[in-house]
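Appendix B, record 7
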Amino acid sequence: MVRCSDNSLYSGQTSNLERRIKEHNSSLSRSAKYLRAKKPVALVYFEKYATLKEAMQREINIKKWTKAKKESLIRSNKI
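Structure tokens (predicted):
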């Protein structure tokens, strides 16, 4: 999960976290469309999963949460 310059939170999944953060902060079009006007972003929370399916299920679940619930998750698991 990344925090955007406007303090919003964005959740996604990737196989290479470091590369993906760099892409989100770059001016190239590989960044998520939502993030293009909200740079820079900062990594605030992540989880690792053995399979892409598990990661995608978790992402779907988290995206349904309120911002308050996401903030609580971030506070409880500082990077």
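Remarks on this record: Residues 52-63 form the longest helix (12 residues). DSSP finds three helices and three strands in the chain.
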